[in-house]
Amino acid sequence: MSDPLARLRDMQTADLPVHGGRTLAYVYDSGLPDVDRIGREAVAAYAGSNGLDPTAFPSLLRMENDLVGFTADLLDAPPEAVGTVTSGGTESCLLAVQGARDSRPDVERPRMVVPSTVHAAFLKAAHYFGVEAVVVPVGPDFRADAAAMIAAIDEAPDRTVLVVVSAPSYAHGVVDPVPPVAAAAAERGIRCHVDGCIGGWVLPYAARIGRVVPPWTFAVEGVTSISVDTHKYAYAPKGTSVLLHRTPAHRRPQYFAHADWPGYTMLNSTIQSTKSGGPLAGAWAVVQSLGDAGYEQLTRDVFEAVDRIVAGVDAIPELSLVATPDSTLVALVTDATCDAFTICDEMATREWYVQPQMSYDGQPPNVHLSVSAATLAHVDEFLTALTESVAAAVAAGPVGVDPGVAAFIETLDPATLSDDDFDGLLAASGLVGGGEGLSLPERMAEVNAMLDLASPAMREALLVAFLDRLARPNR
């Protein structure tokens, strides 16, 4: 008989490391083994519990209320504030949009106003829930343009059900000007949601240790809801997030109930019905273990790492910051001597995972870092690897795409392509190879450079086709 746990461990060797502070995307590492152990054991203890019915599992209700209460205190929420634990930031964002839409049943064609830097989860929500997304360009500092946001609201205030701002935006790590946008929304009777999914747990502690943080919490009048992920900088196991509402009335449209069928009366606070109690228990246990003092120290650690990385980047002439970070996210752009995609490849050869971001609206591709507390112990190694990677990228020269291929890519219209066309494009781009399964090249710079030339619609269609080919059953 095969040992499935041994097989799991063997398969996991191909994955990115989730500990050690060297993976600067997707995972958030406290660097504290005991905290990780507590989280894992709590998840295992509650893996079979079902959050569908809080009366059947009252311990889950207790943990959820504890976690929401801790978060409410952290974010300056008023005494009447309420909240819900969700499966992650995307579900929190979806529910913020759905709740805003359903709070206005009188609006036939609801719309929401968002900056161009808003997380894609809100565009996903717009797609799912039939809400028109009015996307407003940001200012030169990559922050939401408050005047432009307000003007967009006023184009159709009777149909606008939600305005969204970020603290911080994922792509650039800067906090939007929440007070003027929230005030304008409140004056017009419109909800204002702050997406604090990635920064919401670390920014309050940053303010406590004396760092300058733009105002964004419930202390800002007009903010009606905030999302904050506990599986990011609360360093809890995947996947939990908290969606807070200023009042119970703001949360009520989020709920779904259905009694007009032969079965039990369904009552849901989130998009999920059945949901494991494991992630909630893991988040609760980690938050209880660390407490305010633990999070304050982890915040000191992560910002020391950020500051040292920023200072180190300043000493590399080919690199510069896209924007001075307000939080723990750092985006780096190159000069004309090298390119971001090659740097990402070079970092991977040195066992550092950093994330490439494509060009957008005239801005070039960049290297994105989500810095964790665990990175602090390895900052010198990181900066050495980054310096070496930039030097290697300069030596190689900026990655290029054959002009004929570039011209061809620019003419492609995804609406006119067949499945066979997509198969050919995937093979030509290097995203899939011959034979069975996935065959990605070890270096992705040329692939990314070709993708970067494609229109957003073409890139979306190509990657959807890639995911479709990738997700096929093993038989």
TrEMBL record:
UniProt xrefs under SUPFAM superfamilies: PLP-dependent transferases
GO MF term list: transaminase activity
Coiled coil regions, renumbered to chain: none
Ranges that cross the membrane: none
Keywords recorded for this protein, A-Z: Aminotransferase, Lyase, Pyridoxal phosphate, Transferase
Domain of life: Bacteria
The protein's required cofactors: pyridoxal 5'-phosphate
Family: Belongs to the group II decarboxylase family. Sphingosine-1-phosphate lyase subfamily.
Cross-referenced PANTHER family: PTHR42735, SPHINGOSINE-1-PHOSPHATE LYASE 1 (PTHR42735:SF6)
Protein name: Aminotransferase class V-fold PLP-dependent enzyme
Species per Swiss-Prot/TrEMBL record: Nocardioides endophyticus
Taxonomy of the source species: Bacteria, Bacillati, Actinomycetota, Actinomycetes, Propionibacteriales
